[in-house]
Fold these 2 entries.
Entry 1:
Amino acid sequence: MNHRLTVPPIKCQGIKTKLIPWLWTLVPQDFNGTWIEPFMGSGVVAFNLLPRRALLADSNPHIINFYQAIASGQLSGSSVRHYLVREGGKLLDSQGEHYYVIRERFNQTGDSLDFLFLNRACFNGLMRFNRKKEFNVPFCRRPSRFSSAYITKIVNQVNRVAAIIRVKDYQFSCMTYETTIRSAVPGDVIYADPPYISRHNDYYNGWDDSDEQRLATELQGAPCRFLLSTWHSNSFRSNSCLGMFWSQYHISTREHFYHVGARENNRHPMVEALVTNYDPSELSTELDGCETTQLGLLHPVAPGTPGNNPL
Ligand SMILES: C[S@@+](CC[C@H](N)C(=O)[O-])C[C@H]1O[C@@H](n2cnc3c(N)ncnc32)[C@H](O)[C@@H]1O
C-alpha cells in the first residue's frame, strides 16, 4: 500500500483515516466484483483502498451530491478555489457573521460548495443536522479560517479525489444501507461502517439497538464477503452487540483514539473491532507489521495492550 494517505475534502464524525493501514491488512485483494460501502461518510476508505469499481452510498444526500458534483465535473479544484477565495474574504470582512449567511443559504438550497464551506468552517468539523434536516453547527470562530494556504489544501484534496473518480468506476448513491446491501452479488465485498450507538447522533445518524440488529440481519444474508467496523470496548464497557450478533464471526481489534472536541482530555481511547465473515489470516495481504488479534468478546482489553497499538 502507498502510505501517503489521501485525505478527502469532506470531514465527518467517525472518519477512518487513521485506521486505513490496519484496514488494508484485513481487506481481500482478490475480488472481481464491486467494493460496496453502505455508509460512505467522507469516502476516505475507498479513496485509499482504491478498488477498481465501487458503490459508495450514504443516507445523507449532501455527501452524495458533493461527490456526484465532483464526478460530473460540475465541482472542480478551480471552482472550489474561486468560491472559497470569494466567500472566505466575506467571512473575514464580516468578522465571521458571513458563516451564518452561508448556513441559512445552504439550508434553503443544499448547494454543494456551501456544504464544503460549512464543513470546513464549523465548530470542530462536526457534521450535524436537526430534525428539520437543517445543518445546525455553529461557527469555529476563526474569521480568517480560509487563509490562502488552507484554501490550497482543500483545493488539492478536491483535485486528488477528482483524479481518482475520473479513472475509476465509482457510483455515488443516496440510499439507506438496506437497499445498498441488497444490491450486492457474489464476488462483491461490503465494508459497513455505521454510526456507533449513542455517539454523534443527529438526523442522518440516528442509530440504536434495532438498527444494529437490522444491519446484522442484512449483512448475514449478504451473498458476498463483508467487513463491519464497530467498537469493541473502551475504558468503561464492552460492546454487547459483538456477543449478541457476531460471536460466530472473525473479530480483529485495534486501539484507536477518536478526537471529539479540541481538548486533549477529550481524546477517548477505544478498542475498535472489525468483524469479517472470512478469516483475515488467510488473506494474501502482507501484514505490514500490524498485528491482529482474536479477543474474548466479553473481556474488554485495556487500551495499550500489545497487539492493539495505536497507529
Ligand atoms: C461512521 S460514518 C462513516 C465514516 C466513513 N467510513 C469514513 O471513514 O469517513 C457513518 C455514516 O453513515 C451514514 N448513515 C447513517 N445512517 C444511515 C442509514 N440508515 N443508511 C445509510 N447511511 C447511513 C451517515 O450519514 C454517516 O455518513
Entry 2:
Amino acid sequence: MGKDPRKNRKPVRRRAWDPSDADTLTRESRARREDRGAVRLPPLAKEFFSDTPANALVIGPYGALAFVLWNGAEHLCRVDDALMDGKSSVLAPGDDVQVEADSGGPVVRAVRHRRTKLSRPAIGRSREQVLAANIDCVVVVASAAKPQFNPGLVDRYLVAAQAGGARPILCINKMDLVSAEPREVEPYREFDLAIFETSCQNRAGLDALSDALAGKLSVLTGHSGVGKSSIINALEPSLSIDTQDISESTKKGRHTTTSSRLYELPNGARIIDTPGIKQLGLWGISPEELDYYFHELAERAEKCRFRDCTHVHEPHCAVKDAVEVSEISLARYESYLRIRKALVEETTPKY
Ligand SMILES: Nc1nc2c(ncn2[C@@H]2O[C@H](COP(=O)(O)OP(=O)(O)OP(=O)(O)O)[C@@H](O)[C@H]2O)c(=O)[nH]1
Ligand SMILES: [Mg+2]
Ligand SMILES: [Zn+2]
C-alpha cells in the first residue's frame, strides 16, 4: 500500500543538515544507519575546529606543513599536532587559521570552523577530503571542446557545491574552439545558474568572470585540461602558473596541477586552483536529499503524489511527467538517476 497523498500540504523539501555537520556523516544518514542497529559507526570525528580568532589564511597544505598567508607574506609553517590527522593536517586551502611565532619558526595552532566547503570522499571512501574551505563560489570549469563538455561531472560538482553551502557558477572555457555553445549546455540555462563563456585565447568573457569573482573566495574545479590554471593566468599574467597542452593521443588533460593552491588577485579575488579530476564522489549527501540540489527537479517534486517520491518508479510523479513533455531535460534527469543509484549503492551496508 502506498502512503496517503498529501498533495496540497506538502512542505518544500529542505536539507536536513548544515554544511558544518558534514565532517563525518550527515545527521540524517547517521541516524538512519544507527537505526539499523547492526551497523556500528565510528565515533564522531575529533573536533579539530574552534572559534579561535584567525590571523592567517591557508594557501595550501603540504603534509605536516602548510603554506599560509600571514602578516602580508607567504610562510611555510609547521602544523600543531592537534591539527594532524594521520600523516597530514586537516587544513585545506581557504582555511582561516591562527599562526604563532615559535622558536623554530611559525606554527599553525588553530583552525576556525568552516563557513562552507567543497568536499569529496577521500580515497578509501570512509572519510571526507575537503578540497577548499570557506569559499563563496565554486566555479565549475568545463571546456567547449578539447576535452569535450562532460555534463555528468558538471552535475556532480553542482551538487557538491550546494551541499557545501557555496554558490555554484558554470564556466565554459575554450569558446574560441567552437562556433556555437555546445548543445549539452542548454539544460543549464533552464534554471537559476550563472554561466560564463570564456576564452583564454581571445580573452572573451574574462572581464565578466573577473567581476563576478572580485572580492570573493572561489575555487576552480573540473576535468584536467579544461583550462583552470590558464584562466587564473589570464586574469593575472604575473602568476605564471604551469599549464600544459592536452594529450594528442588521449585528448585528455595531463594533470598538470598536482596540488591545490590559493592565489590572490589585484581585484581582491582569491582563487583556489585545484588539480583536475576524472570523477567526483559525493560526500555527506543522502539519496533522499539529492533532488533538492537539482533545481528544476526540486521545483516539480512539490507536486509529486508521494511526499517521499524518489522520481524513479512512483506513479503520479510530477518530475517524470515533466521529463515526458520535455519541460525537464532528459539528460539532467538521467544524470539525477545515475547519481542517485550510486549514492544508494554507497549507503547500502555490505555484509
Ligand atoms: N584554445 C584554447 N586553449 C586553452 C584555453 N584555455 C586553456 N587552453 C589550453 O588548454 C591546455 C590545458 O590548460 P590548463 O590551464 O593546464 O588546464 P587545467 O584545467 O589547469 O588542467 P589540470 O591542471 O591538469 O587540471 C593548455 O594547453 C592551455 O593553453 C582557451 O580558452 N582556448
Ligand atoms: Mg591546472
Ligand atoms: Zn516524483
